[in-house]
Design a protein that fits this description.
Order of helices and strands: EEEHHHHHHHHHHH
Strand content: 5-15%
Shape: flat
Structural class: mainly alpha
Radius of gyration: 21 Å
Number of helices: 11
Helix content: 40-55%
Length: 262
């Protein structure tokens, strides 16, 4: 069984009696009740309008954009392209290309940064499965060291962690280890170590879910993290989704990782 570039699960039935004889079965993973497609879908007719809308917010020439307008960008895109749940991989990757062109302008305001992080992560999830995804994730990872601009905004921190959780499947082991190292202090039981220098990171619950999604961490790292979460779960105020994170860490069948890291 293999995952094809157009988002279908290709299953081959192999004959036992006749060596080398195979039959292909394809199942569509995007959209219920849709027939399997042999080629990527064409872009929606109004995609150029959507691209112009993004360029208006994140273009090279600074334009006066009201806060309400940037906050409504996602809903405006849905009016042009249809519900986000129906956006296929081809459309998502084209949207990421337009967003990437405006990556340098995401810091114009807290709203610009938050919406860009949300849309970029959504357009590139799960970080693999389409041609050039390795390159796209590599380009996106180049932004990690600079972090977020508006570090006093809790919602921006949340979108930052969600972004990396969404594309985690495309990050190599070194990148995942760096992410884990940078958030470990906030996941440990209190008093284990000193807070690292730099702005205080926010978004504990999203950091927990991100860490649990890093399937390329060595098994010993997952065991250590699981121990921290078990200690935290003894407190009544701990978010119930920490149980989900613990289950994800201990999953015997990873979504994208290797069996030796289980």
């Amino acid at each position: 069984a293999t995952l094809t570039e157009i988002g279908t699960l290709e299953v081959q039935c192999v004959a036992q009696a006749e060596q080398g004889r195979r039959w292909n079965l394809e199942f569509q993973l995007r959209g219920l009740g849709e027939e399997s497609e042999a080629t990527p879908a064409e872009l929606p007719a109004r995609f150029p309008e959507a691209a112009q809308l993004i360029e208006r917010m994140y273009g090279r020439q600074r334009k006066t954009v009201a806060s309400a307008e940037i906050r409504s960008l996602r809903s405006q895109l849905e009016r042009l392209l249809g519900p986000r749940d129906a956006w296929d991989g081809t459309l998502l990757r084209e949207l990421f290309g337009v967003l990437w062109d405006g990556a340098g302008k995401r810091r114009r305001s807290a709203e610009h940064e938050r919406i860009w992080l949300n849309l970029a992560g959504y357009a590139l999830r799960p970080g693999f499965g389409y041609p050039l995804d390795d390159w796209r994730v590599e380009q996106l990872w180049s932004l990690y060291e600079s972090g977020i601009q508006f570090h006093k905004e809790a919602r921006n921190w949340a979108e930052w962690w969600i972004l990396w959780r969404r594309v985690a499947g495309g990050l190599d082991e070194a990148a995942q280890l760096q992410l884990f190292k940078n958030i470990a202090f906030y996941l440990q039981p209190p008093g284990m170590s000193k807070r690292p220098s730099g702005p205080k990171k926010q978004g504990y619950d999203d950091m927990v879910r991100l860490a649990a999604s890093l399937e390329r961490l060595p098994a010993e790292g997952k065991i250590e993290l699981g121990g921290w979460l078990l200690q935290r779960l003894r407190k009544p105020k701990e978010n119930v989704q920490t149980w989900w994170a613990l289950g994800r860490l201990g999953a015997r069948e990873p979504v994208y990782g290797s069996a030796h890291q289980v």
